[in-house]
Amino acid sequence: MSSIRNIVILTGAGISAESGIRTFRASDGLWEDHRIEDVATPEGFAANPDLVHRFYDARRAGALAARPNAAHLALARLEKAWQGGFLLVTQNVDDLHERAGSEALIHMHGALNSAWCGACDARHRWVETLIERPACPSCGKPSLRPDIVWFGEMPYRMEDIYEALNDCDLFVSIGTSGAVYPAAGFVRAAREVGAQCLELNLERSAGSAWFHETRLGSAGEVVPEWVEEVLR
Ligand code: BV8
Asked: pTM value?
């Protein structure tokens, strides 16, 4: 690992699975109960806001009740011990990385514990429900929506992410199926700048062929093992 200076890590729903948070595309996945179009698009929200609020209110409560697992904790340990550049980009909307101690963290698909006002554009930390259309703390209007990047919406902080990818020597993808863009394309950007690319996942992802190495297993086991190896 001597030639490695800057690390970029991408995580997906698989890293939170062992914390009891459902993934999207497994057999018991979230998308089994709901059509993506109905609950994770602006059109779906406009058509049936109650359905969408119920979907995110339930996930917000579930995420707050969950605990970080060994994989989240290992990544926080790596960040503190690492001397070079470090960025953790997550597609997840739970706050388990923060609660494990991660700080150099970007939630590119938004966060369940944030509400975004459609009237005044303010964002507020939010841990309750939104179904009752509570007043926005800034403007008082009942216009709060989940601060989540839906399909067709631009993920957050893409410039910061591509800047980090352009400088990285090691790109590690953990617990993601590689089904959703632009996140699924990050490994290609990393390869283009000559970074070492490692995938840690329960099964091969759609983008597996782009990685130099894939280690199969559950994040709670494979991630701490890998972190110990890097820090040795
Ligand atoms: C954009 C918030 C452009 C919601 C999410 C064709 C038609 C229409 C659109 C498109 C298209 N082609 C591309 C697009 C764009 C679209 C897209 O990619 N669609 C896909 C479905 C084809 N992307 C977008 O719309 C994005 N925006 O492109 O904007 C633009 C340009 C200019 C101006 C404006 C806009 C926005 C994408 C973000 C959508 N929002 N999340 C919510 O969370 O409720 S995406 C959603 O999927 C989640 O964020 C999730 O993180 C993400 C990816 O899923 P994964 O995290 O990978 O989870 P998954 O269940 O799929 O996989 C879990 C993996 O873990 C599995 O591999 C499993 O094996 C593994 N695993 C399970 N257990 C464990 C484990 N691994 C280890 N240990 C375990 N224990």
From this structure: 0.97
Cβ < 6 A, ligand 1 pocket: 12-14, 17-18, 23-26, 29, 40, 91-93, 109, 148-155, 175-177, 179-181, 201-203, 205, 218-219
Distance 81 CA to ligand 1 centre (A): 30
What superfamily would CATH give domain 1-21+68-109+155-232? TPP-binding domain (3.40.50.1220)
Each residue's pLDDT expressed in tens, for the chain with a length of 232 residues: 568 999 999 999 999 999 999 998 877 778 778 898 999 999 999 999 999 999 999 999 999 999 999 999 999 999 999 999 999 999 999 999 999 999 999 999 999 999 999 999 999 999 999 999 999 999 999 999 999 999 999 999 999 999 999 999 999 999 999 999 999 999 999 999 999 999 999 999 999 999 999 999 999 999 999 999 999 9
Q: Are 187 and 210 in contact (CB under 8 A)?
A: yes
Residue 109 is among the residues annotated as catalytic for this protein: yes
Contact 140, 146 (CB under 8 A): no
Catalytic residue from among 34, 53, 109, 124: 109
Q: Where are the domains of the chain?
A: 1-21+68-109+155-232, 22-65+113-148
133: exposed, middle or buried (Cβ count in 10 Å: 0-12, 13-18, 19+):
middle
Class of 22-65+113-148 in CATH:
alpha beta
- Helix or strand or coil: residue 60? helix
From 16, 18, 23, 90, the mutation candidate for ligand 1 (largest count of ligand atoms within 8 A of CB) is: 23
Q: Of all atoms in ligand 1, which is nearest to the CA of residue 56?
A: 44
Q: How far is CA 94 from the centre of its chain?
A: 8
